[in-house]
User: Fold these one by one.
Assistant:
Number 1:
Amino acid sequence: MPEIPDLEVIRRFLNERLLGKEITRAAELRPAMVRSLAGEDFAADVIGRRFGTLTRRGKMLTLPLEPGRLLVVHPMLTGAFQYCDPTAKVAKRAFFYLGGEGFDLRYIDEKQMGLVYYVRPEQLSLVPRYDDQGPDALDAGLTYEQLVARLKPYQGEIKGILTRGEFIAGIGNAYVDEILWEARVSPFKRRKALTEDDLRSIHAAIPKVLNEAIDVLRERMVPDIHVKVRDFLKVHRKGGEPCPRCGHPISELTPNQRITSYCRHCQPGSLLKN
């Protein structure tokens, strides 16, 4: 699943290349992927519009198509953008493209899990989940006190809470493992059992982990922004390998059918009771 680091690199990359460019050709290669709330035929309506400044909110990217349209993309587990020469072979899993002079922007989705909405600006609140998100995980204004206050209604394990978009937006399964490893907090520790040191460590780890990943991905993903790069992560999907901090083997479990990777030595805590 694309998370903040992936989407931030994509956003910055596309803003450097698309801002002001006119769309002169477009096609829905597999109809029904784009949900048009604007009441227009998407592929026909985008012709002649120009790209505005892309923005990101949590795990959603918004592409302004000026004048008067927005393309909101929630890639979910398998969605991705490909920026390429128009002559490049179109992937079988491509669903639509927007093209102009010397470029194609294609949306590909291996399992068709992403959500794509074509709306007018006043319809943005109609996009599911858009307004239900909490503060962005990279919001510089998210203070320690605000983080603690937002945690109070939750009762579960800290890993599950941090991945809830209504609590804090943009963190998924991979980077929550990295954040909790950095903070030395067990992913299974329940909110009520968290100490002040735990909470301060988590608050500090969130921007540190995400910004460091952005720096790596700017070097590794560009220009192939459709390729997911995760091999540099320290614990996620590294089960059995030595912890880069203490050398003990990294544990990997699949509670609730999602992978959780952590170091039992650096992140102590019982799976049954915290």
Note: The chain has two domains: 4-126, 144-262.
Number 2:
Amino acid sequence: MSADANSIFTDNERRDADLQSDKFFDVAKYPTLSFKSFYFKKTKAANTYFVKGNLTMHGVTKPVALTVVAKTGVNPMSKKSIAGFKITGKLKRSDFGIGSGVPTAIVSDEILIDCNAEFIKK
């Protein structure tokens, strides 16, 4: 997976500009975030998987662990088959050199990952 760092959107233009600046993500220098999994295993919980992979952000690549809950079904609006995923995890921004000059009293070092994705079968 990859994401355009310029797509940061918090519904606050000043905060978005700050996050995109060289104080945090430095999107001019590091325009892309990427994740490539190398381990995927079903857990004992229903529809739940444990995923490990390398996250590259701000020019730094580090392994991260994620929990993925997957469900399939039919979208009630489009009537098309879908697969939905809830992805959660944690990381430290300091591990990636993001916001190194910003005290943790202002912005936490621990970042919670909370992602929802839906894919439609063609």
Note: The chain has one domain: 2-120.
Number 3:
Amino acid sequence: MMSVNTSSEARSDSLPAEMRALVLDGTGFDHLRVGKVPMPRPGPGQLLARVDAAGICTSLIKLVEQGPDHKFVYGWDLARFPLILGDEGSVTLVEVGEDLRDRYRPGQRFVVQPAVDHPPIINLERYRDRGQGIAKVAVGYTLPGHLAEYILITEEILAAGCLLPLPDPGIPYAHAALSEPFSCAVSAQEHHTHLVQRDPLSPRQVVNGLRKDGVTLIVGAGAMGRMHVDLALSAGPRAIVVADLLEERLELVRALFAGRAAAAGIDLRTVNAASANLVSCIGSTTNGAGADDVIVAAGSRGAIESAQSLVARGGVLNLFAGLKKGEEVVGFDTGIVHYREINITGSSGGSPWDVARTLELMSAKAIDAGVHIACIGDLEHAIDFLRMTRAQQIAGKAVVYPHRRTEEIIDVQSWTSLDESNYLN
């Protein structure tokens, strides 16, 4: 692992005057660059952290393509005030503002929940109407992001409780960096609520999460769909069915999770919905009852409309993947909702609790972030990774180490703590 110098000199005089960062100064990929920017220095109520590892998130593509029109940019003039991108990362403190020295110290490791539910505090002059009416800001948007060598932890992040300590110092940098996307799956599955009666005369009780010993169907085996499979395995259903139109994605699901599912006594099934009958598969798996939990992790109107008929009585349909603008309205059979008494839910991102829960699951080895990592590179590769992600050329997550200089992108099947240690040392 990279060592951290916690001396007073390292916290101030030894820091460089500039750092490398991925910067957006307009709309489109032509306005995206990796270059030198001034090194941020923390104010009294701020922290400065080294970015140990950063993930490449698909949401950044929308930000690049929309520029100042993105809803979380709030009218900033990007030509005057470029954004430092990156909403996924793990960090180590290197400098602590004078008002925070009784709470934090250099060398502590954290992850940042990027969705900051707090009005803007700093740089109000850059926001439309000086930030009036804004209730939420985001890291990697108007707050500095992780795709840089260092990141400024601002007052908004601390006030919203979005700086989460690692429960285990042994969690690899790259794994911790993926706690944010994993937290989205944690949040989604926490949104599942089942009303359970012990017997007909007992009151209903609310049980959160996937139904234990039930059947879970995950529609879509992309990167987030596979995180849902990973997380669902720790919930203890008797069967997990994963459906997709691409056989190579289903092959990856089997390669990553079949052994673990078998060891846990969980029946893991994959269905190519382009060539097999998903309805028949769910019917045979559930004796015609339907799946207790259905998660639609594919951004498809057709997937949502067809999935509703696969939900069991009292089950949950989770609309996890968003649809393109203009395609948000879908058809629902109200008879299914009414007579089967199903719950329909959705979620968009995680909360600080979800990130903390994700870190606990990582520490307990209940989920394995390493199997979701497909590419490793330098900060200089961030733009290439974004283009590759947009073209769906990466079968998983890409992670960059901003302080590790390399010319090559490394394709990997998984990324362990030992892999990271060997790479960095």
Note: The two ends are 7 Å apart (CA to CA).
Number 4:
Amino acid sequence: MSANFEREESELKECCNEIKTKLSQYTQQNKSAKNFADLIEQYTPIKELDEILLNTLIEKIIVHEKVYESGEKIISIEIYYRFVGKIDKNIV
């Protein structure tokens, strides 16, 4: 009976640690999203996409080499926004 109790206690501790980790990640994501929303709010409504706005909202842009698929030239672009990172997987 003691072995079962110790096993169950170990499983519960592991589960508790996983929940704490997920809560920490959620809290960080929530904070990042709020920071991004606060930053966007300063510029709304956006009437024109200018250099200042791009430099403020975007952390980096990665442009991949072109590839040919079904006879079409495709260039993938990744956009990483401040505080929230990459939102779309790929923009073609």
Note: Residues 2-41 form the longest helix (40 residues).
